[in-house]
Design goal:
The complex is a heterodimer of chains A (992) and B (267).
Chain A lengths: L12 E5 L3 H4 L3 H9 L10 E6 L11 E4 L5 H14 L5 H7 L9 H5 L15 E2 L4 E2 L11 E2 L2 E2 L11 H10 L3 H8 L3 H12 L8 E5 L1 H4 L4 H14 L10 E3 L6 H6 L6 E2 L3 E2 L17 E6 L9 E2 L15 E4 L8 E9 L2 E4 L12 E5 L12 E2 L2 E2 L11 H4 L9 H13 L3 H4 L23 H11 L8 E5 L3 H4 L3 H8 L4 E6 L38 E6 L8 E4 L4 E5 L3 E2 L2 E2 L8 H15 L10 H5 L19 H9 L1 E2 L2 H4 L13 H4 L6 E2 L14 E3 L2 E3 L25 E2 L13 E4 L3 E4 L9 E2 L4 E2 L95 E6 L15 H6 L4 E5 H7 L6 E5 L8 E8 L5 E3 L2 E3 L1 E5 L33 E7 L1
Parallel strand pairs in A: 1-2, 1-8, 2-3, 8-9, 20-21, 21-22, 36-42, 37-39
Antiparallel strand pairs in A: 4-5, 6-7, 10-11, 12-17, 13-16, 14-15, 14-17, 15-16, 18-19, 23-24, 24-31, 25-26, 27-28, 29-30, 32-33, 34-35, 36-43, 38-39, 38-43, 40-41
Chain B lengths: L3 E6 L8 H9 L26 E8 L5 E8 L8 H5 L6 E3 L5 E3 L10 H5 L21 H5 L5 H5 L5 E5 H18 L4 E3 L8 E5 L14 H4 L15 H4 L12 H14 L2
Parallel strand pairs in B: 1-8
Antiparallel strand pairs in B: 1-6, 2-3, 4-5, 7-8
Classes of the chains: A alpha+beta (992), B alpha+beta (267).
The structure holds iron/sulfur cluster (SF4) (3 copies).
Chain lengths: 992, 267
């Protein structure tokens, strides 16, 4: 979330799309209902719009409920963007100042489709390469800004046809109300009412919020769905303001924390990109000279272990580990390792000198590791950076200005390396190539994808080489229920040599080898008969189940969707921590594992042989005392390291910081020279040096433990800045500089006067009390920085620039799901049906044959299916399908369908039905038919389309058993994230 | 002890059923085995283990707008409880000064389940093995601790609230005036004057809600089959007879519970 849960109450209009918040984030309704209260009762009379294929428990609460066919979000949002632009319902002040609306593109308009409109656009953006099925052609140069002498060209008159404004307008002009209605199935009048209602939040003083979840992401164009929301929100001026933003509602109480800490396969902690195999070095040193300092002793002599009388010793350049030689005397006997720099003229050495150094002797200091310590920088992981200097390296910076926090990645990375290896000798000596143990960091293979689907595909490939042992750890993960095409997934598990499950219960995954006669489909071959290789005796996999503690049985932090990091304490009974059996916390299990690995690799001498494990700053075997010792699994120690601390040497080399001093902010404290350690830069500040006072006591600097329930905002917007701590730097509403509008004479004033997030007093040159944490610091003026601080140009990108990170096109375009009920794309036969990065007609039926995906056809599988969650169960169900009280509420697998479809199938409410797709023609999902008025058939492009939906929580273990809906879901997914397309597929329903 | 009641605003309620589970948890009720019979509703009825549950019904308004209507079933804690009037054992059912109608199971268990028949809604239920009556007791232990009922405290949207009886109806009407802005047919149930300490705000007329009354469940719990026909919904409250008002001594169990609560909530 760019904002946070409490802030929902400040919205004037809330749109829930791709989410069923009432069921999956029930607490959000506390704040939604606050916003919906009449003004006289302290609310904002906010309207709630819910967009969903069926009336869910969220849609039931809505003021306006818009039905759409699964997978048509971009058509719907595209229609809203069109509405905003054509009805002049966009916030021009906001969009011109804070987005690239007025930026001139580098020939995009000309390249996409010369002429008055884009009606012949094929869905493939300029630069699409039909051989690679990627946007890697020359045409992508049109996706950038036109650059003039002083940076990007900006045309605030918006007259230039190449401005983002005109490109957007033409692009989304194709998304007429009529067409939106025909694609989505939503009534046209209702669509226009919704468009009018939501777009009315463009006005100064109003804000609208979009809340989304997995209904948005789990599509072959999931990333583009979110891009579409961002474009709409930016046009309406809804980002950075109270009651606005894009609320990514995370899947469970700590999934935010999981991704913050690098759970995703492309990330290190703090969303740093994980380096790949082409990034062999950090590339942070510019000189290869080992010489650091030469000179003549000017005064005094050296004796014992101290050499004084040196000239110009720079504590940031000369450090412990460097060598000092008496060049007059010469020889290795007169060369010593520097232990510490005492001051600018004196160093301490490691050994007593044999021969006294005298006045006039020459000396030279060289780096022990053969490199200079970070004297300059040219590039960092392929990106040009000017280390620690406000970005002069990026031409974009010269036009407008941004804090551009991305440019400091080198500091974040160096500090992360220090957190992981800072106490090793390798690190202190600068590491190989002066990369400070960067070489210890495992790199991903740039040619390999590490997503869930790809991993399962790799198991299949590697299974052909049985000599390679395959181990999988499923840590709180239940792929035998949760993965797409689970019948295939279970088959893959049988290819493993070893499977280690860490869970509270014996999940379907942990028990995958045990056949359950009641739910036999998992071991069936595609033909529907028993697969002989999948019987318990045939499966050779060794399975371990490590009993894990539940969240309430352990101490630690959880981060909610609003980025609040909240410290929790383990449940106690009579003052003793609750302990069931031999269950351990995840941290204990990880610690045991790591300590054992360190023992195993204690003699390692090469990286391939495990040197990185041996040298890692973890446990009592760390070779020296520079970092914090981490010998027992203490969540507090982990949190302190996540926050970051100073390493030992600054104090010794004349600095003031002592070893292990907690850092307080990534902005001021993180260093690129290896003197700070930080486990996650975005969390720097969560555990500071000074004590923290809370209503229940004073703690060490753990700000996540703060529980002061006081709204410190000036306008009652509910910042609660002293209740827990949030990243970054406790800023509750990110991009909040965008809440200020530049006004001639007056300077910057809040867009919203009654719910301002921050406000500047030009008389006293200070921010008013009750402002949120200001980006760039409280001493900066409103115009000091542009608000979108992660982009060099400081503005939000309505138009996405060519980027190596996002493989999709620059603007979200409607594509059909991989399995679509349509024969041709709604924009015409010459328009590609699918996201061309994912699937393409040119490449035979599918491009992603790599995932064995074969789409079902509408002739065989006529109905649109989707899957969802229920409030009563959680994810793959292990935690809830074993709890009798929850099982009582939702005991069985069911499928929801309309009365119309039920009549067609001669199915009555409560009958048993079977559901099949191209994945499981002979191993159907068996379910109770729940016939409901809450689902109605759609009319799509003139034809009736039936949609069904079902929960995916069920599996064949536990108290509540049922066939997993994921037998049906396709093993194909988003172009970027590769999250499977769980939300839209074709299926068949039959009465049993 | 002031008198309390519950206000259940079905316009806010999203049927998350936190109330239903928290009631079982707090009152140490067991889950019962259910099946899906084509509805989210489960269990289908009250029982000695289930003191409250959410009823689900669907209603298509004349304009075609479909509403999923939720109504939480539980004891109404009548001012003049029919259960109490029908009870042949003195003080086996009492109306506590706190407003809750409570079964004293130290005394109860020796009749033919008269309270079930005496209650217009058949709320008290029995285990299959004996004739002890069980039902919602408005979390008397919590209320005496100054805490809201378990179902109220679990509710994410404050759709269920524990209120002092003196403000219960006024609060309900104040809320109704707001609810009516969105739901013109919203109403207070039961209508004023029926003497119930549990008050609902319904978004549509009661006829579209599920007020189905048990006919089989008591027999399935081992009781004699329901012999009487059941009265129409509107007539039921009229049956309620004059009640005794009496206090009840807190049982040892509640003291134990209080300690646990105090310990947990002091943290
Ligand atoms: S807890 Fe509240 S919102 Fe949930 S079902 Fe009960 S009354 Fe409704
Ligand atoms: S008569 Fe029924 S509803 Fe009223 S208090 Fe007795 S059991 Fe409850
Ligand atoms: S008041 Fe207590 S006993 Fe009655 S329904 Fe609520 S939680 Fe259950």
């Amino acid at each position: 979330m760019t904002n946070h849960w409490v802030d929902i109450k400040n919205a004037d209009c809330i749109m829930i799309i791709g989410s069923n918040a009432a069921e999956n984030h029930p607490m959000s309704f506390r704040w939604i209902e606050e916003a919906r209260k009449p003004v006289a009762n302290g609310g904002r009379n906010a309207k709630l719009i819910v967009i969903d294929p069926r009336i869910s428990r969220s849609a039931n609460q809505a003021d306006m409920y818009g039905r759409i066919r699964s997978g048509t979000d971009i058509a719907f949002i595209g229609g809203l963007i069109n509405w905003a632009l054509t009805h002049n319902m966009y916030n021009a002040d906001y969009a011109k100042n804070y987005s690239n609306l007025a930026y001139v593109l580098n020939g995009f308009d000309a390249a996409i489709n010369p002429g008055p409109n884009y009606n012949n656009f094929t869905g493939e953006f300029p630069g699409y390469n039909s051989a690679t099925h990627k946007y890697d052609g020359a045409g992508t140069s049109a996706w950038t800004y036109a650059i003039g002498a002083s940076g990007p060209t900006v045309d605030n008159t918006l007259a230039n046809t190449e401005t983002v404004f005109n490109v957007l307008k033409k692009f989304y002009a194709r998304y007429t109300s009529d067409l939106v209605s025909r694609i989505t199935g939503m009534d046209k009048t209702l669509f226009e009412q919704i468009a009018q209602e939501y777009c009315s939040t463009y006005a100064d003083g109003k804000s609208g919020l979009i809340m989304y979840a997995m209904g948005t992401t789990q599509h072959t164009y999931g990333t583009q769905n979110i891009r579409a929301y961002s474009i709409l929100q930016t046009l309406l001026g809804n980002i950075g303001v109270a009651g606005g933003g894009i609320a990514a509602m995370r899947g469970e109480s700590n999934v935010q924390g999981s991704t913050d800490m690098g759970l995703l396969f492309g990330n290190l902690p703090g969303y740093l990109d994980i380096p790949n195999s082409t990034m062999a070095t950090l590339g942070i040193q510019t000189t290869t000279s080992t010489q650091k300092l030469t000179g003549t002793l000017t005064a005094g002599t050296a004796s014992g272990r101290v050499i004084s009388g040196l000239t110009g010793v720079d504590a940031t350049q000369v450090r412990s580990g460097d060598k000092i030689q008496n060049t007059t005397l010469g020889g290795t006997a007169n060369t010593y390792t520097i232990e510490a720099v005492i001051n600018a003229t004196t160093v301490r050495i490691t050994a007593n000198m044999g021969t006294a150094w005298t006045l006039g002797d020459g000396y030279a200091i060289t780096s022990e590791s053969g490199i200079n310590h970070l004297t300059g920088s040219t590039s960092f992981l392929g990106q040009t950076v000017a280390k620690g200097v406000a970005g002069t390296a990026d031409i974009l910076n010269t036009a407008r200005f941004s804090n551009n926090w991305k440019q400091h990645e080198v500091k974040y990375m160096m500090s992360l390396l220090a957190a992981w290896w800072g106490s090793s000798n390798s690190f202190i000596l600068g590491g190989a190539n002066g990369d400070f143990c960067y070489d210890f960091l495992p790199k991903i293979n740039s040619a390999v994808n590490y997503s869930y689907m790809s991993v399962f595909k790799q198991i299949e490939t590697l299974a052909a080489t049985p000599s390679v042992p395959q181990l999988m750890m499923c840590w709180g993960m239940n792929p035998a229920v949760g993965g797409p095409d689970v019948i295939h997934g279970r088959k893959m598990l049988a290819n493993l040599t070893t499977l280690v499950c860490v869970d509270l219960w014996e999940t379907e995954t942990a028990a995958f080898w045990k056949e359950d006669p009641a739910n036999p489909g998992y071991s069936y071959a595609a033909s529907g008969s028993q697969d002989a290789t999948l019987t318990p005796t045939a499966i050779q996999t060794t399975v371990y189940l490590l009993p894990a503690k539940a969240s309430m049985e352990k101490e630690g932090s959880v981060s909610n969707s609003g980025r609040w990091v909240q410290w929790r304490y383990g449940a106690e009974d009579g003052g003793v921590m609750v302990q069931k059996g031999t269950a351990k916390s995840d941290l204990d299990i990880a610690n045991d594992l790591m300590l054992q690995l360190k023992t195993n690799y204690a003699a390692a001498t090469t990286i391939a042989g495990g040197l990185g494990i041996k040298e890692m700053s973890w446990g009592p075997n760390t070779p020296n005392n520079y970092g914090i010792q981490f010998s027992e699994a203490d969540p507090k120690a982990v949190m302190k390291e996540i926050n970051g601390y100073t390493l030992l040497y600054p104090a010794n080399i004349g600095g003031t910081a002592a070893k292990g001093n907690q850092l307080s902010s990534f902005i001021s404290d993180l260093k690129f020279d290896g003197t700070t350690a930080c486990g996650s830069w975005i969390h720097c500040g969560c555990w500071v040096q000074t004590d923290v006072t809370t209503p229940t006591g004073t703690y060490q600097g753990n700000r996540a433990a703060k529980r002061i329930s006081v709204d410190n905002s000036a306008t009652g917007i509910g910042l609660y800045s002293d209740f827990s701590w949030c990243w970054p730097v406790n800023r509750r509403i990110i991009y909040n500089r965008a809440s200020m509008k530049p006004v001639a004479v007056d300077g910057y004033v809040p867009f919203q006067t009654d719910k301002w997030v921050m406000k500047y007093d030009y008389v006293t040159s200070t921010w008013f009390a009750g402002s949120d944490v200001v980006d760039g610091g409280a001493n900066t003026k409103p115009d000091a920085y542009m608000p979108f601080i992660m982009k060099p140009e400081g503005v939000a990108r309505l138009f996405g620039l060519n980027s190596t990170k996002h493989v999709d096109g620059p603007l979200p375009e409607h594509y059909e799901p991989a399995e679509t009920p349509l024969a041709t794309h709604p924009f015409g036969a010459s328009h590609v049906m699918w996201n061309p990065i994912v699937m393409h007609m040119d490449a035979g039926p599918v491009l992603w044959a790599q995932y064995n995906f074969v789409p079902g056809t509408v002739a065989n599988y006529p109905y649109v299916g989707t899957t969802y969650r229920l409030v009563e169960h959680w994810q793959a169900g292990a935690m809830t399908r074993n709890l009798p009280w929850l099982v009582e509420l939702q005991p069985e697998m069911f499928v929801e369908m309309s009365y119309e479809l039920a009549a067609l199938l001669a199915v009555n409410n409560g009958d048993h039905v079977k559901v099949t797709t191209a994945r499981n023609p002979n191993n159907p999902v068996l379910a109770v038919a729940l016939v409901t008025k809450r689902i109605k058939p759609f009319t799509i492009m003139g034809n009736t389309v039936h949609q069904i939906g079902m929960p995916w929580h069920f599996g064949y273990r536990g108290l509540a058993q049922g066939t997993s809906a994921n037998r049906l879901t396709p093993n194909i997914g988003d172009a970027n994230t590769r999250i499977p397309e769980y939300k839209a597929f074709l299926c068949k329903v039959e009465k049993v | 002890m002031v008198e309390y009641g519950l206000l259940i605003d079905q316009s806010l309620c999203m049927a998350c059923r936190g109330c239903q589970v928290s009631c079982k948890q707090w009152n140490e009720r067991q889950a019962i085995v259910t099946t899906n019979v084509g509805t989210y509703q489960n269990p289908q009825d009250l029982s000695w283990q289930t003191w409250t549950f959410m009823r689900f019904s669907e209603y298509e308004e004349p304009g075609g707008k479909v509403r999923w209507l939720f109504r939480r079933e539980l004891c109404r804690h009548c001012e003049n409880p029919g259960c109490l009037a029908a009870c042949p054992v003195p003080n086996a059912i009492v109306r506590d000064q706190g407003g809750m109608v409570i079964v004293n199971r130290n005394l109860c268990g020796d009749c033919n389940r008269e309270c079930f028949y005496g209650c217009p809604w058949g709320v008290p239920r029995f285990p299959g093995t004996n004739n002890e009556a069980w039902k919602c007791w408005m979390c008397r232990d919590r209320l005496y601790e100054g805490k809201p009922s378990a179902c109220s405290s679990a509710c994410p949207v404050q759709a269920t609230r524990t209120l002092e009886k003196s403000v219960l109806l006024a609060t309900a009407y104040e809320r109704l005036s707001i609810v009516k802005q969105k739901h013109p047919r919203a109403n207070i149930y039961p209508p004023t004057g029926y003497g119930s300490n549990v008050v609902w705000i319904l978004v549509d007329s009661p006829e579209h809600y599920d007020f189905s009354f048990p006919t089989t469940s008591v027999s399935s719990e081992g009781a004699k089959p329901a012999a009487k026909g059941f009265l129409s919904e509107a007539a039921r409250p009229m049956l309620a007879a004059t009640a005794l008002t009496a206090g009840i001594a807190a049982a040892a169990k509640f003291l134990d519970r209080r300690e646990k609560v105090a310990r947990a909530e002091a943290k």
